[in-house]
Every structure is written in C-alpha cells, then in structure tokens.
UniProtKB/TrEMBL annotation:
This is Pimeloyl-ACP methyl ester carboxylesterase. Pfam families: Abhydrolase_1. GO terms for cellular component: membrane. Residues 74-309 form the AB hydrolase-1 domain. SUPFAM superfamilies: alpha/beta-Hydrolases (SSF53474).
Length: 352
C-alpha cells in the first residue's frame, strides 16, 4: 500500500514538474514563432532589390548602378551605418546623383541581405576587404568611398588597406575613434552564447518594434525625421535574429578595434572630406570627426550648425559638393555649408 502511495506522489510530482517546464517553454516557443513570423513580414515589406555576389564562399548583397554616358564623377561606393542596410544610403543619394556616376550601394556583411561570412567580418577591416572584393566582382577598379556612422570606420579601413582602390573618401558623421563609456545593454546580452540566441529570438522583435519609432527619431534629432524614412529604408530588417546578432557583434568589437586601428589613419593619402553636425548626440564630432581630420593630412572638415547624426539626409547638397571636390572640381565647400545652414534654419523657423 505504501509503495502505491509513493508511486502516486512521484507521479504527481512529475506532472507538476512537467507543468512548470511547459509554463516556461510554451511562451518561449510562442515568442520564437512570433519572431520568425515577423521576420518573414519584414522581408515581404522590404524585399531584396539588390544582387547577391559570391565573395570567397559567402554572398554579399549590393545594388549596382552602371556608369551612365552622362557621368561626370568617378565610381561611388556607399557604406551604411549600424542597424542599417543599403536602402538608407539609396534614400539619400540615388536620385540626387542619378546620371552622374557609377554607384554601388552595399549591404555590409551580416546586414540587409548580405550573408555574414567569416569571423573577420565582425571588424571594419574585414568588411572593407569584403567590399574591395565586391568592387572587383563588379569591375570597379577605383572609387570614392562614402561611409556613414559605423560605415565610416569601414571606409577608413578601406582607405588604409586598399589605397590603390581609393579615389577619395567622404565621411558622414563617422564613428572612427575610441570613445569613453560603453554600448547599449541589449548588445551585450545578444552576444552571450545561448542566452543571446534566445534573446534575439524571444525579446528583440517585440522590444525593437516598440522602440523603432523613437529610435529613428533619435537618429535624426534635433532635426525632423523624413515622414517616409521608415517606410522607405527598412530599419525593421535589423530585428531579424541573425542580423541583430551581427549588428550586436559589430558593436561589441568596435571599441577595442578602434583603439588598435585608428592610429593607422595617418597612412591615408586619398583626398578626404569629413562632414559632421555640431548637434550629433549619437557620434560625438569632437571625438570622431575632429580626430579624423587631425589624423588624415590634407583632409577637409565641414561642420554644419544644427545638424545631428544624419547629414546624408539633412545636407545632401553639401555631401554632393564634397564628392565633386574630391573628384577635382573647384567647389566652395564652406559656402555650401553656409547655404545648407541657412536652408535648415529657415525650415526650423517655419516648423516652429
């Protein structure tokens, strides 16, 4: 009789344990399923408009605009920043530069629709090497390299390691030098083995969708974000688990990488222009842009009053004048800055 009682008790304990495990696993499984469903939705909303190119065993995505007969600029290669994809730079530059140059808009390894490739692609130098190989695939021997934000670190690595392919460098609010402090907490969690896998598949999508509006507003602050920015540039693509993990790894590796590699910027000899806003609360211009201008001999630093982290959108005209200047055309760059400041000041007054 006692054995029967003990057996019943053990059975009840086992059922209770199963219930507790189910109470944990079922919501996790549901969250993973929801994230997979939303990832497919993101890709349906922003399908790949580029072409996948094999780069040493993995595929890299890019939109290639062949050289038009009316071209008056050398080839241009555009590198997006953190959490982004090639749609970001296409939105800023494709139409304003239409008919003027061969253009290559790149998804950095692990971002947009590019595959991650090997461990070297967790660093700006590895990504710069990948872009150099992509240029070879597309028949581009030499180009002006344009890098925004973290893409600036990649552009700098390109200028250091591939001078023969660098016709010039245009940095837009670049992140190129070590900074005090750290990075957001969720990037730390996303790179922890197993826990990061779960975090990227359970928490990131609902948390990211909740924060997407505010985050994109902050990227443009203190300037207004274009009303169609989210609908045209696909920032939700970074919430896909593998992409978010790659983005987090980029951030985790960046500070130590810059401590070691930024001293080599003095080797850059290509014509260089650096455009930054004096109100950038994301990448501090006094730590990055000013230091970059100090490191690259003969570079030109353009600081635009009242502009935050997106001079590519807020001062596209200045960026195009800089490209023309790099290409050897005489341009009054400080005059272009003043015109942009007056335009932006007028727009702010109207908005107020």
């Amino acid at each position: 009789m006692r054995n029967l009682t003990d057996g019943c008790l053990n059975c009840c304990r086992f059922k209770a344990m199963l219930a507790e495990i189910s109470a944990i696993l079922v919501p996790i499984a549901a969250a993973i399923g929801y994230s997979s469903y939303k990832a497919r939705q993101f890709e349906q909303a922003f399908p790949n408009i580029g072409e996948l190119n094999d780069i040493d065993g993995y595929r890299m995505n890019a939109v290639h605009i062949p050289r038009p007969d009316t071209a008056d600029l050398p080839p241009l290669v555009f590198i997006h920043g953190a959490s982004g994809n090639l749609l970001d730079q296409i939105g800023a530059f494709l139409l304003p530069l239409e008919g003027r140059a061969e253009m290559l808009f790149v998804d950095r390894p692990g971002h947009g629709y590019s595959e991650r490739g090997g461990p070297e692609n967790a660093f700006p130098s590895g990504q710069a090497d990948a872009i150099a190989k992509l240029m070879e695939k597309r028949g581009i021997k030499k180009a002006i390299i344009v890098g925004h934000s973290l893409g600036g670190a990649v552009a700098a690595a390109f200028g250091v390691n591939h001078p023969e392919k660098t016709a010039g460098l245009l940095f837009l609010a670049p992140a190129t030098h070590p900074w005090p402090g750290g990075i957001d907490w969720y990037y730390h969690i996303a790179t922890v083995p197993l826990i990061g896998w779960l975090f990227s598949r359970v928490v990131v999508v609902p948390l990211g969708l909740w924060r997407l509006e505010q985050v994109t507003l902050n990227v443009f602050r203190p300037n207004p974000r274009p009303a169609d920015y989210i609908s045209k540039t696909g920032p939700s693509l970074v919430l896909r688990p593998k992409t978010f993990s790659a983005n987090a790894t980029d951030f985790m590796r960046l500070l130590e990488y810059l401590k070691v590699q930024s001293p080599f910027y003095t080797r850059i000899t290509a014509p260089t222009v650096i455009i930054t806003g004096d109100s950038d609360g994301i990448v501090w211009e006094h730590l990055h842009s000013q230091a970059l201008a100090r490191d690259i001999a003969g570079s030109k630093l353009l600081k635009i009053k009242g502009v935050g982290h997106k001079p590519d959108y807020l001062a596209t005209d200045v960026a195009i004048a800089a490209l023309e200047n790099i290409a050897g055309m005489p341009r009054d760059l400080q005059g272009a800055v003043r015109v942009a400041e007056e335009r932006l000041s007028g727009a702010s007054s109207i908005a107020a």
